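Colleagues,

For the teaching module next term, I've prepared a clean inverse folding example: a structure given as tokens, and then the sequence designed for it. I'd like students to try predicting residues themselves before seeing the answer, so please don't circulate the second half yet.
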């Protein structure tokens, strides 16, 4: 069966662990906990991966070992290594333009200033048709503080709210595989006030 590859963006290393910019990696780690998986290093994709398969679907979970602004290196190598196309790709990433802990789906589009998405689109030779799950982290009051904002840990209550809502989306992969993209987006849209369909 054709798998769904879910990649969570972030920066590697303990210094970036639990920072706002690593929300995508947080999601992958929670998925691994859900399915009792352990990520294993694979040099050919410049990252870590785990696989989960049932009779009805197969998920490939990926955590790049590259830095955020080089995410495209890992994603492009993953697509070759696992033989998947852009319509089998779900990128999970932090989003400044959404309130903290809110989530939105997006079917395709530009990078919106996100360096990880920008690099992925560059490495896919301009193909921006991959699906995204955007994790809101809010934004600083001053735009000049954006870099330090995303590379810092959020206050504990904001962090708790974010993780709590991520748990509500851990079945997104199996839903996409079993029900299709549009039906999945609509099911989250109608059941969760903070989620809307941008596809």
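(Answer key — instructors only)
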């Amino acid at each position: 069966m054709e798998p769904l590859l879910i990649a969570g963006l972030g920066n590697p290393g303990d210094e970036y662990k639990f920072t706002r910019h690593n929300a995508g990696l947080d999601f992958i780690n929670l998925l691994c906990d859900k399915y009792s998986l352990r990520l294993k290093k694979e040099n050919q994709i410049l990252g870590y991966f785990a696989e989960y398969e049932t009779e009805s679907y197969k998920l490939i979970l990926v955590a790049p070992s590259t830095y955020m602004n080089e995410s495209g290196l890992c994603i492009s190598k993953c697509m070759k290594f696992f033989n998947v196309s852009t319509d089998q790709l779900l990128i999970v990433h932090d989003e400044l333009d959404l309130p903290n802990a809110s989530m939105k789906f997006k079917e395709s589009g530009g990078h919106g200033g996100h360096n990880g998405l920008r690099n992925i689109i560059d490495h896919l030779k301009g193909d921006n048709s991959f699906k995204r799950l955007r994790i809101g982290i809010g934004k600083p009051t001053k735009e000049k503080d954006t870099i330090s904002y995303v590379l810092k840990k959020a206050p504990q209550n904001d962090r708790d709210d974010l993780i709590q809502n991520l748990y509500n989306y851990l079945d997104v992969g199996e839903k996409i595989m079993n029900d299709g993209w549009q039906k999945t987006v609509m099911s989250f849209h109608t059941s969760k006030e903070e989620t809307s369909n941008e596809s």
